[in-house]
Amino acid sequence: MSEPEITVPGAEPQFHDGGPAGALVLHGFTGNPVTMQPVTDAFVAAGFTVSMPRLPGHGTTVEDMLTTGWADWSAEAERAYQELAAKTERVVVVGLSMGGTLTAWLAAHHPEIAGIVLINAAVKPYDPDAREFIQAMIDAGDVIAPGIGADLADPDAHEPAYEGSPLPSLLTMFDAVEDLQARFGGITCPALVMQAPQDHVVDPTSADHVAGLLGGPVERVSLDRSYHVATLDYDKALIQERAVEFAKKVTAS
Fold first, then answer.
1. CA dist., res. 79 & res. 2, Å (int)
2. Are residues 209 and 237 in contact, defined by beta-carbon separation less than 8 angstroms?
């Protein structure tokens, strides 16, 4: 079966050869690599070997995404990590939103990861009422809801995310977040947790939640000028600077 055609300009996966330190950069739910391009560019400029995969079902059509779920996305994140780890000495993983969920999931499975950067990460369990509401919509035949992308404070910024949100796929992420809760304490690598107080997609208290559970040292950054898609928003330069600074520190031999 052939791969669906990428329809979003710039949504192709990327791999940049660089130095012995690696950075794996992961986008979020209904987004694509365009969302994380500024972060990737910063790591490339800093001399890292950088991988930015495109998660299955993303960057094509929302109908394609309906056929995918957490098992597909985590498998692609694992594949990309293995490829990068084989070519570098130490790896940092950086993720936005669901990319942050995947980042924590990888760290739980790979204690050798040098550090993680969680940006407005989906790491706090979802309200059971929300889950029941979504399941009721699915049962009624409504499998695609209005999209959650493009939550940006900067009116000149644009995220080419899907306009719809595939609900059955979303529930698989809810399950993954729930399963992660018992694993956070076992993640002992350093973590940089960045959160926008005015996030309209992920509960802003998620940063406090995960910072209190992680088993290793945690640094915090507040993204005061941005909304959820902070990597494209007013704080994008701050994210680039702090993420690269953190990554250099934790990958130093």
1. 19
2. no
Both tokens assigned to 112: 């050798």
What residue segments make up the domains of the chain, in order of their start?
A: 14-251
Per the residue annotation, which of 151, 199, 203, 233 is the catalytic one?
199
- How many residues comprise the chain? 253
> Which ranges of 3-119 does DSSP label H, i.e. alpha helix?
37-45, 62-65, 70-87, 98-109
Write down the catalytic residue from 51, 97, 169, 226. 97
| 54-82 residue pLDDT tens | 999 999 999 999 999 999 999 999 999 99
pLDDT tens track for 9-33: 899 999 999 999 999 999 999 999 9
Catalytic residue among 27, 51, 169, 228: 228
Indicate if 199 belongs to the active site: yes
Whether residue 216 contacts residue 189, with contact meaning beta carbons closer than 8 Å, is answered with yes
Known active-site residue 27: no
Element (H, E) at 251: helix 236-251
Single pTM value for the model:
0.96
The CATH fold of domain 14-251 = Rossmann fold (3.40.50)
Is 97 considered catalytic here? yes
